[in-house]
Structure formats: structure tokens, C-alpha cells
Specification:
The protein is an alpha/beta fold. The protein has helices at 5-21, 32-47, 140-145, 153-163, 200-210, 225-228, 237-244; strands at residues 52-56, 75-80, 96-100, 108-110, 131-138, 150-151, 171-175, 197-198, 214-217, 248-251, 264-269, 278-280, 282-288. A 9-stranded mixed sheet has the order 1-13-11-5-7-9-10-4-12. α5 runs parallel beside α7 (237-244). The longest helix is centred in the N-terminal third of the chain and has 17 residues, at 5-21. It is globular. The model has no long low-confidence stretch (mean pLDDT 90).
Length: 291
């Protein structure tokens, strides 16, 4: 059914007539339940107006999608099709595929259970947790100079000096412009990878001092390559920490260069997968048109 402004006004008029029949004055405020629907519809209409921009933060899912080196590429197997040259055993009035993809492939979510057996899985993450204020820490210039850049507490406090306090419950994204690279590992002549990441101290500060809800970044790892490839370091310390704190994260993000440092909302969508440790995600930001 198509909902229009006329149909909404008509519905409200019918509701007010029923209220009047029960002796309720038309000036009596509507209850929150009855007032919610028109209010939310108007809010959505505003968000879709030219006053706001919607920015997709997701890489298109395909065999060419950037992904962690240990995974096989995305694969699609045709099951049924409607084209005339389809083999008889596959011919049908619809087109269907069977997709094969690693749980942490491309732009994806990591659930706490990704690293912790007693952590929450994807099906335990509630819908209210999927919409957050978005703060973007832009260090793409530093990462261009030093591909092993490691985001520190000092970087976060300097960001707050310019943009204000990071709000509790927010999603903090680290912009490195790594999404613009063809090779996320960025190996040198000796075959060693070089990519930026978070310091565990910075992630711990965000959780313990700012009570953030989630983090995100463009490389396929939370920790920089200098940590993940170091034999003496604890494997993936920043990633281990953020997931152990019952937070989720989004990796291999795209288009962080198109969103402002503050003022945007992020929506992170992914399947409600039973015992899911991760899955390709669809994330987008709603931003003010200016900025």
C-alpha cells in the first residue's frame, strides 16, 4: 500500500472522529503510540531530502572485492534461471544463485564471538545497536607518508580538541584511504605487508574513557602490519580487546573520505545469523548535505 500525505491526514481525521465519539476533546494530545507513525514518516522524509546525503560505506561484493589474503574469492553458482538457453534441469521462472563467501570477506562485521567463544554472536546483536553517531578520525595524509601508521591516544585527544568530545555509544571510524588501494597488504620488495591500524591503547581509551559502541577501518585488520607480523607481539591485540569488550567492528570499509568528521549517523546492517562470528555487511552513513 502506498502511503501519501493525503492518506496520513485522512487517517488522522478518522482517528480524531473516533476520539470525539468517545467524548475525547480533539485538543487532547495524542498518545506517544498514535503520534509516532506520522512523526517517524516525516523524519524519514526529511532525511531523504536534499538537506542530507546518504553515503554507501560498503565495497560491492564480488570475486574482485578487497579481502583478507587467507580467504578464497567470493563465488556464485547458478542454481536456476529463466533465460531461454538455460539447461532444462535448471530452467525456472526465476534466477537463483548459491553464494560461497568467507564470514569475514570484504566489508564485514566481526562479532565478539569471532575471537571469544563466550562472546555474543551476530544473532544476539540487537537492532538498536546498528544505528550510531559516526565520528571519523582522518589520518589519510599520515598513512600516505607512513603506511605503518598506528593510531594513538594522542591522535584521539587531538581530534577532540578540534571537533569536541566523542559521544558515548558512537561508532568511531579510522580513515586511512586504504580502501583506494588495489592491494590491502601493500607488500614491499621483501614480501612484508605494510598497512595502518589502531594501537591497543587507543582502542582501550575509546572503550574505557568514552564508552564507544563500535569501531571501523579500511584495512582487513584492526592492528597495523607491524603488529600482526611481529613474532614477539600478542596476535591481534587491538582486535582481541575490542571484541572482548562486547563491541563489534566493521572492517574493509569504503568511502570514509566522503563523510564528515562529526554530525553523521551510521547504519550497519548484516544477517541475524545464529552463532555467527561475522558476515559481509552493508553499512551507510546519513550526513548533512553541507560538510
Amino acid at each position: 500500500m502506498m502511503v501519501t500525505k493525503t492518506s496520513v491526514r485522512s487517517g488522522i481525521a478518522r482517528f480524531n472522529r473516533r476520539r470525539a465519539a468517545r467524548g475525547i476533546d480533539a485538543a487532547t494530545p495524542l498518545s506517544p503510540t498514535t503520534a509516532t507513525a506520522p512523526s517517524l514518516w516525516q523524519m524519514l522524509e526529511t532525511l531523504k531530502s536534499p538537506r542530507y546525503r546518504w553515503v554507501d560505506l560498503t565495497h560491492t561484493l564480488s570475486p574482485k572485492t578487497p579481502h583478507w589474503y587467507g580467504f578464497e574469492p567470493f563465488h556464485a553458482k547458478l542454481l536456476f534461471d529463466y533465460l531461454p538457453d538455460t539447461p532444462a534441469e535448471m530452467r525456472a521462472p526465476m534466477r537463483c544463485f548459491e553464494y560461497s563467501v568467507a564470514s569475514q570477506y570484504g566489508t564485514h562485521v566481526d562479532a565478539p564471538r569471532h575471537f571469544w567463544a563466550d562472546g555474543r554472536a551476530l544473532d544476539a546483536i540487537g537492532p538498536q545497536e546498528l544505528v550510531m553517531p559516526l565520528c571519523v578520525i582522518d589520518k589519510h595524509e599520515e598513512c600516505a607518508i607512513n603506511p605503518d601508521f598506528c593510531l594513538s591516544i594522542a591522535d584521539l585527544t587531538a581530534w577532540e580538541d578540534q571537533h569536541g568530545r566523542i559521544p558515548a555509544g558512537s561508532f568511531v571510524a579510522f580513515r586511512s584511504d586504504w580502501s583506494q588501494k588495489d592491494d590491502l597488504e601493500n607488500k614491499d620488495g621483501a614480501g612484508m605487508p605494510h598497512y595502518p591500524g589502531w594501537s591497543i591503547d587507543a582502542v582501550r581509551w575509546l572503550v574505557e574513557q568514552r564508552n564507544i559502541a563500535a569501531i571501523g577501518h579500511e584495512p582487513a585488520d584492526t592492528d597495523p602490519a607491524t603488529v600482526t607480523t611481529h613474532e614477539d607481539s600478542y596476535p591481534y591485540p587491538a582486535e582481541q580487546y575490542i571484541l572482548s569488550q562486547d563491541r563489534f567492528q566493521i572492517e574493509v570499509m569504503d568511502h570514509l573520505d566522503a563523510v564528515p568528521a562529526t554530525g553523521a549517523l551510521i547504519v550497519c546492517a548484516f544477517p541475524k545469523l545464529l552463532d555467527g562470528v561475522g558476515y559481509p555487511a552493508r553499512c551507510f552513513a546519513i550526513c548533512p548535505a553541507e560538510g
